[in-house]
Amino acid sequence: MTDYAPDQEMEIEALEAILMDEFKEIHSSESGLNTSNRCFQITLSPQDDDADDSTATPVLLALIFSHTEKYPDEPPLLNVKSLKGIQVSDLRVLKEKLDQEASENLGMAMVYTLFTSAKEWLSERFAEDADTENFDDEETAKDEVIIPHGEPVTVDTFLAWRERFEAELALERAKLMPESALSAPKEKKISGRQWFESGRASAKGAAAVAEGSDVEVEEDIDFDDEDFEDDEDDMLEHYLHHA
Questions:
Q1: Contact 86, 125 (CB under 8 A)
Q2: Is 83 exposed, middle or buried (0-12, 13-18, 19+ CB in 10 A)?
Q3: In contact, 124 and 44? CB cutoff 8 Å
Q4: How far apart are CA 151 and CA 183, in angstroms?
Q5: Which segments does the entry list as coiled coil (predicted)?
Q6: Which of 57, 59, 65, 69 has its CA 20 to 30 A from that of 1?
Q7: In the Cβ-directed half-sphere of 79, how many Cα atoms lie within 13 Å?
Q8: Could you give the strand order of the β-sheet that contains 77-84, starting from the edge strand earlier in sequence?
Q9: What is the pLDDT of residue 207?
């Protein structure tokens, strides 16, 4: 008849040396197992072993086991218990996973293997929750951030904009002047302002450029006088709209 006790005791000593404070013996009445044999509890968290201890641990799990008479030729008695933040449904999933792995590792000391598997499951399961929470926090932060558009309006910035605006407007007006007005001899040329103020950019654009001038209009251009009459209030409103 095989004596399993020495191998079981050797495994207990190895677990104590490896897990240290995470490993302890508990009374069978605390284990939730139907046994009077020695019972042990391993405390697990999803954190890495070298994680900062000051970081709050969101979940804690207790892996409880007891050797049966013929362990490791038969599975150990197992129980999982939430010490912090783990739902009963998650505990059921983990228990089924560990029972399956125990049946696949018969004939060898397996408690440390089960401990490693439970820790990996815990890390993966609750890392997903942490990622989801971080994503939600980031989205909330984005929603709360108010991004300013444009720049503050001051007298200086408005005057600078108005100067640019008038220069651009003058350029557009120059583009619309007849080529005859632009190519006339110097003494007969008129400014864009004179051309528009002369009233010759009328509905039919057929009159001479200025009184006494022999520069002719080559094409019909339809403008209303009010098209180019912008007072400062209108310009300020335009500036604020595009700032």
A1: no
A2: middle
A3: no
A4: 42
A5: none
A6: 65
A7: 19
A8: 23-26, 39-44, 60-66, 77-84
A9: 44
Q: Name the packing angle between helices 111-144 and 88-104 (round to 10°).
A: 150
Q: Which residue has the tokens 């060898």?
A: 108
Give the whole-angstrom CA distance, residue 162 versus residue 168. Answer: 10
pLDDT in tens, 42-56: 999 987 655 555 456
Taken in order of first residue, the domains within the chain and their CATH numbers are: 4-126 (3.10.110.10)
- Taking the chain, what is the end-to-end CA distance rounded to the nearest angstrom? 92
- pLDDT mean across residues, the chain: 75
Q: What mean pLDDT comes out for the span 71-84?
A: 96
User: CA-CA distance, 190 to 184, in Å (whole number)?
Assistant: 9
| Type of residue found at 16 | E
Calculate the dihedral angle through the C-alpha atoms of 156, 161, 166, 172, rounding to the nearest 10 degrees: 170
Tell me the C-alpha distance between 53 and 55, whole Å.
Answer: 5
Considering the chain, what percentage of its residues have pLDDT values greater than 90?
A: 44
Rg of the Cα trace of the chain? 43
